[in-house]
Amino acid sequence: MATWVLGDVHGRHAALERLLSRLGLDAGRDRLWLVGDLVNRGPESLAALRWARRAGQRWGARFAMVLGNHDLKLLALAAGVEEPGPRDTLDDVLAAPDRDELLAWLRRRPLLHRDGGDVLVHAGLLPSWTVAEAEARAREVEEELKDDGSARLLADWRSERPADEAGRERRRRTLDVLVGIRTCRRHGGRWELCDWSGPPESAPSGCLPWFDAPERASAGARIVFGHWAALGLYLTPRIKALDAGAAWGGPLTALRLDDGEVVQEAV
Length: 267
Description:
Elements: E1 3-6, H1 13-23, E2 31-34, H2 45-59, E3 63-65, H3 69-79, H4 91-94, H5 99-107, E4 112-115, E5 118-121, H6 131-146, H7 150-158, H8 166-180, E6 183-187, E7 190-193, E8 208-209, E9 222-225, E10 234-235, E11 239-241, E12 252-256, E13 262-265
Parallel strand pairs: 1-2, 2-3, 5-9, 9-11
Antiparallel strand pairs: 1-12, 4-5, 6-7, 6-8, 10-11, 12-13
């Protein structure tokens, strides 16, 4: 049995199919994980989403995909709480005849997947969070995302203002971290996200990669994530960052967790 993890696909379905053909996956034995941002930026978001839904049905518990910020943006657009941006490529999904089934499947994806000492998440964890706390927070938000409250949750997440109720603000903050964190800094005794998406060495003063924070509470886990294209493929024994920039023409990346083998496919 092998566990392969795919980096951010970003609607690059043709490259995804080429990459998968090179991996020699066995759906009855291997495991396939995705770090999120399955859709948007690339030209084939609908095909990628349909593939993922079929793969989930075929692979069952051996398949795991966590939600990324672009997957959530698709849900926000569909809920009417977000306007499309000039670089979005989601019209084919929103106009698809099977749109409702695809979006319902997407809403049921987790924000964090945990398997023993391995954690799969789109962006990362706040340094003060243990894995158990992060998982509990993720489950809380996932429950709201599945039901009729998802539009309000997504509206809160996309708003630039804090939510007007403590529980809603907690869930908004959880989403911000799990799908958005790159760098962070201490402020007033707590960690806050820095608004920075560039390379870590150019981050503003006081902002450091979340995984480099001193005394990080999740340091004992192996954490696999994507999201940070400017960081690129970054691999240490406990940190596996797999966004090599497929959204911007970089390669699509697969990592075999068992032995660290990396396979990349040009988009």
